[in-house]
## 1
Amino acid sequence: TQLPTLNIEIENKTISIPIRQRFQTIMKEKRSNLCLSADLTNLDEIIELSKLVGSNICMLKIHSDILTDFSLDKIQQLKDISRKFNFLLLEDRKFADIGNTVKLQYTKGLFRIVEWADLVTVHVLPGECIVQGLEQAAQSINEPRGCLLIAQMSSKGAFTDNDDYVKGVVECAKKYSDFVIGFISQSRLTTTDKFLHCTPGVHLNNTGDQLGQQYVTPRQAIDERGADILIVGRAILDSINRAKTAEEYQQQGYQAYEEIRKI
Ligand code: BMP
């Protein structure tokens, strides 16, 4: 398999940067390990928000299937902003079907996810064929693409709380490590720095919601849950000043990341 790469023109020379390396460079350059989970139902609002917090985040995560005004034009605008502010776009699609079906879900339909999402999330429940299907589909695009495997979930009673399952997910990541650049996780799963651990369920003021979400603080997420990237949604979205709150999570998150991971 070919490494997913981004072709960038520098002084008329084209260089290729694998998506994993690009992610790590963005984090270092921007001093940010904050992924904003923009769980809003209006893409125009997400576009405005992404300009407001663009300099504070290393990644923006969306759920395109909750948007009431999705269009390929608007998603292109968001993609342009992500390039301007230098953050990745993650579609939290949570693919969970057989290889052939996910290939279609990734490339076709209303959303044509492969055309704009740098990264997607994937359940490995169907087995490694799901990753094969997505990786194959990604090769039709002349831009780097990658995925995050959902190893563990933040919600109460998650069935991912099973050592054998998690071990299987890690094995799958190792086998397809060109396309799989990390995990959605609640603990450190590998000793190498190769895989980025992205952890949702982060909030400074709440411990959970009414529907099973469980929160830890940014420092706990990094120290106790092994996170590299903090995925933060309502803590920022529901705050009075989203820009200021995003900056707080960026600063607290990156400071803890530097101290704990000793990068
Ligand atoms: P919030 O910070 O508002 O609770 O949002 C968390 C986000 O992360 C949601 O978009 C949710 O779908 C996602 N998420 C999660 O909360 N737990 C997981 O285990 C995996 C997720 O993708």
## 2
Amino acid sequence: MALAHSLGFPRIGRDRELKKAQEAFWKGELDETGLRAVGRELRARHWQVQKDAGIDLLPVGDFAWYDGVLAHSLTFGVIPERFRPASGKPTLETLFAMARGVSGDTCCGGAHAQEMTKWFDTNYHYLVPEFTPDQQFALSWEQLFEEVAEAHALGHTVKPVVIGPLTYLWLGKLKGDAQGFDKLDLLERLLPLYGQIFQRLVEQGVEWVQIDEPILVLDLPQDWKNAFERAYNSLQREPLKKLIATYFGGLEENLGLAANLPVDGLHIDLVRAPEQYPTILDRLPAYKVLSLGMVNGRNVWRCDLEKALAVIGHAHSRLGERLWVAPSCSLLHSPVDLEREEGLDAELKGWLAFATQKCAEVALLARAVNQPDAPEVRKALAESRAVQASRAASPRIHKPQVQARLAAVKASDSQRRSPFAQRIARQRIGLALPPFPTTTIGSFPQTSAIRLARQAFKQGKLSPGDYTDAMHSEIRHAVEIQERLGLDVLVHGEAERNDMVEYFAEQLDGYLFTRFGWVQSYGSRCVKPAIIYGDLSRPKAMTVEWIRYAQSLTGKVMKGMLTGPVTMLMWSFPREDVSREVQARQLALALRDEVVDLEAAGIKVIQIDEAAFREGLPLRQAEWQHYLDWATESFRLCASGVRDETQIHTHMCYSEFNDVIESIAAMDADVITIETSRSDMELLQAFEAFEYPNEIGPGVYDIHSPRVPDTAEMVKLMRKAVQRIPAERLWVNPDCGLKTRGWPETEAALVNMVAAARQLRKEL
Ligand code: GLN
Ligand code: ZN
């Protein structure tokens, strides 16, 4: 019998109950008992949902307050000094303090939160463990064992899930004076903790544990590879069966290593890396379980069951009982339950599967090899075939016009008419800006009045005319303030935008939206990505009227504001039937029309945001160049429909530019604004070393905090910039958009910023 299991289920709840409960707890509206009750309720429900779907072995340990990596840090006692409780024993309060920081005015003084960063190439963010060279580990948190007991009490057969020792260490950072110390040296100290955990699980009657080691799909340094064998040899003693789980890519050169670790099973991701099969069969020792990740845990599409069954059937004939069937990775990255989407178009809904439905798909695949003649199996396969056929032929997806336009794209379409040097000369004449021109990144404070107006409009309580009036008055307000402050290139403030991707997606053909398709981004924050389901096109202009209105209010230059094709793609659920590259290029053409229309409306500066450009880099270095090529080309295709006189800006948030600077330069934006203030302008090093030729606006203040930096501080930062980049190519701007800020601090900071630019001009 092939076994169906799940690597993890979303923890947020179908109505984002976890988010709501955590936020209520933080506000003091819910006590700890109440919060814990919500957690228990969610776990019980999620186990039942998975069991009802036909999953044989249920995950425990996938639930977490705030973040799962954080839970491991508590488990191991990896609690930075500044959060260490006097009693020695961490509490929920300790956990949330590590996640969110503690403000300075409380009893115990302030403590900044742990750093947060992207979980591999997903849009989930985890809290980075902080190690010190003298780091000690001690079992300090009972949550996993409590939850195992809880599941057992409910009569479930479970498989606890832990992050493996090497992945855990890899994800962490050394702090303090760690010169010359290698965090891998902490391994010997950490391993006994795993021994203790496994021992406890054995005592609880657990048979299998899942150990996540997704770093096995990365380019690993040799000493890390070597450490794998050492670590798992030493963990061999515990009489607990171990399944090593890998996901988000192929094992490639680590395949032999992973297959031969002294454990009882291996999970591989055949959605991301189908080529691992059947190679793996020849490499896997004959006693081991092989878990095949067949159902995509990272996207929203129904699985092509017949295609998956071709692999599963073959694997079953070779492995028999040793075959397990699973989603590709934890379902943490999928929305919870498609059944919630009552309002969704029936045909589109028929193409989708969320976490709950994905569990049923996994179970069905196992069933299909165990009982191929069961009527449910036949029915499900027939249905899957029909869905695949309807999608493959649907005119809602396949648009000959869009495809023809893409096919007709010429190399010159992604090329500005003249080289930068000529363009900038023309732009300087047309724009007549002072040296060190000042601008902002696009958004101004999204006040509650703005949000309320938008909500009322969406609910039909505010007429389109009244809504337009409300937004116009916001734009007027933003323009007045910017004129008063003396900024050089103005923005309209983005009041009408809920989100920089969704706003455009809603106006493009080929996107669909769910009402409850939330996935956790970090902590209590969830996002509801739009879904690309078909060929993408722009039925009509999206931003032109707003920007035209804004420009009509001022004699200064008004900057048009768009989200770029790569970012649109990275922050959406993409199609699986065409490549990401094709989708990016379709988006590029749709946005290109908007760029051209803005120019025709008299807009002289157009910013195309590419916040997700750097974060789209594949996990494996060998795949970088291909990605960078199409990402760069998509941006250029989007930006190159305009005259030389029109100035194209792009913007990127906190990024490491060293390894991608060549591609940043190849994007050929006339101006790039970047987030640099927290790096003390260090990030400009990459631009300097590469002799980046175009203009740069290095952010002079951090927009994540309400703190108002003074003029001297910004002048000092810009002086550092001048040492790296010629003054005539520098702009002065904040790090990013100001939508999360309030007006008072925004105005105060911008007054100082304009003063800083004026001072710098005097120094020229
Ligand atoms: N134009 C956007 C804004 O100002 C850019 C946001 C971003 O880069 N994340 O809000
Ligand atoms: Zn930004």
